Amino acid sequence: MTQTQEETAPPGVAATVGVPVEEPARPDRIRRPSDAIRFAASVAGLVGIMLLVSFAQQTTHGLQTDIAEGTAHAPRFLLTLATLVSSFGVLAVPVAFAVERLFHKDGVRVAIALLAAVIAFVLTILLDDLVVPAAPGGVLDSLIWGGTDTAPVHTDITPVIAFVTAVGMAGRSRWQAVTWTMIGLAALTGLTAATASVAALAATYCLGSAIGHGTLYAVGTPNPRPPGTAVLAALERLGLRPTRGRQVPGAADDPRHYTVATAHSPGDAPADATGRPLPGGDWQLRVTVLDRDQQTAGLLYRVWRLVRLRGGSTRRALRSLRRSLEQESLMAYAMESAGVRTPRLVATCEVGTEAALLAYEHVPGRPLDAVRDAEITDELLEDVWQQLRRLQAARLAHRRLEGDAILVGDDGRVRVVDPRSGEIAAGDVALRIDLAQLLTTVALRVGPERAVRSAARVLGDGPLAGAVPLLQRVALSRSTRAAVRQDRELLPRIREQILRLKPETEAAPVRLERFRPRTILSIIALTVAAYIVVPQLSSVNLPTLISQAEWWWAAVGLAASAVTYLAAALMLMGFVPERLPLGRTVLVQLAASFVKLVAPAAVTGVALNTRYLQRSGVRPGPAVASVGASQLMGMVAHILLLIVFGFITGSTHNATKDLAPSRTVVIVLLGLAVLAGIALTIPKVRRFVAARLRGMFSGVVPRLVDVLQSPSKIVQGAGGTLLLTVGFIVCLDACIRAFGGSLPWTAVAVVFLTGNALGSAAPTPGGLGAVEGALTLALTISGLTADTATSAVLLFRLLTFWLPVLPGWAAFTYLQRKEAI
């Protein structure tokens, strides 16, 4: 599409009439990632306020009292004046701004903002007039302070906040200042008149902001990106006299790029890299356009890298448009000053209020990714490393040395481009990451041997040895990690080639990750567990329960818990054709109870049993298959028992109605089935699940065939599986009876099977937190009092999780000394 019309420019930006620009058609509306992120942040803030007023009512009320007492001493005249001004201005100023936008032909944005205001108004009326009276007490009432005239959210302010949020005042500082001053005065007068609370006002702001951003994202905001004609108009103001332009295709998340031809006279004709004048009409500029709405693209990924890596990520996850412009400009000038061959930065400027441009000299060429293998000569590779050496000597970290950041010009010389993520005065780790990144990039094209050999000729062996600890996938860019994932041997081969050059290298390992994803899951799960378990413990009268408990039932539970280790040993032995000693196999299961403290419950048994079988003479493949077979049969038995006991529980008159499969069990199972079915319709998810299942259970079927040929092994494996479940059910039932409770054994079975499934899926050590919460909730639903359910679960976990730790440690130490694991 070619644009020549002046009307294509955004408000406030003049276009260059008659200058053609080839670019794709611009969509009328776009969904900006920043709107979705701000909507989520506003909802999170609203949830945080609800939690705060639930747990810290005295604090919030005390703050309200302090504000009321402080404003009581303010002059009455000033308070009256503020009330009058805010009552009029809180509505008049947004209306005036809307009229101003209509004069500038920005009616679509005003319409979207009006829709957000209507939604906010209706929602606040429903909340204040219907929801609160229908549900007195609790969190909503905690937002109210000062009597019956107050409300949890405010109908007069919420629509205004939603309107202001949706209409967008970025770059219009005067309107922003006046509007938010009016909103602030309205909030202040509400506080002084005791018709609003601090918590209610905070909730009002978060709700209005959420509605505004949510409406923008749902409907789409008018496209604020200036078209190519506006970009050329900005170049015209800089005196570059563009004659035509063309947008270069690129990824959606990348900045837009244009090649631009400029007019010139023979005396001021620019020259190419060889010094020859460029004829008029050739592409002479490559213009990068930074759009304000794209600044948040990839924000979550950058935040994740910033938090997760130690000094290996950019310092700021979110930069303003001005900050991005300054950073790229500074890096471009620094690279040129350091002697790095890079396109010269000609000019920079803003394009209206929503974008900025950087104009570079245009260098004809191809990125390294597009160069044919036959054209990548040793001289070309040495030129690549020469540019890196200059970057490193000047302490400049590029941070994106991928194939598209290395430009091979038509003159055969290498240039480093795309300095948007660069950093000056970089630290040692950042420079070594650059080296590791470029090593990987080059190795992906020419192989590790040639990449390392060419780098050593230019950089020397010492710097390469320093990059060895940084050759980790987590240190590489996203696209490079995806490529390395396809060739898992690439990074080890690069390390091997470097160590061949310098065998005496003893580079200390560098830990780039602050934490692993599993650590985050464990922290979240433990926090949730504490939130669930601690309130339950605070409501339990432990001294009374302990004094009234029948402790001989606890002895029964302890015996049942001990039987489970024998059952687990029989279960494993039943799926191993080779002969295993019973005593040592039981010790291995006991040792697993110690390992549970540092790993999720679903991982410990598999890893330890596999290691034990290998030490017992079983080859690695059959060992993994045997453990996989036992786990598979255990899972099948678990599901079948849950269905059977759930059906029996739901059809038994004495069983609890709430835990019957007619509601809870069936809904959960159907819900999981539906979610699994939807997930498996996605090809990528389906391939991932298939690969994981093949890796986990490869060889399981042949192993089961071997077991089925021995009736004694079938009885041993099936009997161990059934005995394991019965032992835990008897233990839980004994713990319930120890505190005077009683439930049908079928209900106890359903409760245990459900809680154990959740514990196996939880990422916390031994299912800590998930098991306690699930069992306590299920027992309470089944008819036990909260005190009895909590006490029974704590005793059950004591017998099955905590007490075996010390014997498990002794067994683990003994087995290690005997080299059995």
TrEMBL record:
The lineage of its organism: Bacteria, Bacillati, Actinomycetota, Actinomycetes, Streptosporangiales. SUPFAM superfamilies: Protein kinase-like (PK-like). It is found in: Cell membrane. InterPro entries: Kinase-like_dom_sf, L-PG_synthase/AglD. This is Lysylphosphatidylglycerol synthase domain-containing protein. The chain crosses the membrane at residues 36-57, 77-98, 110-127, 182-207, 520-539, 551-575, 587-608, 628-648, 660-682, 714-736, 743-762, 794-815. It is a multi-pass membrane protein. Signal peptide: none annotated. It comes from the Bacteria. Keywords: Cell membrane, Membrane, Transmembrane, Transmembrane helix.
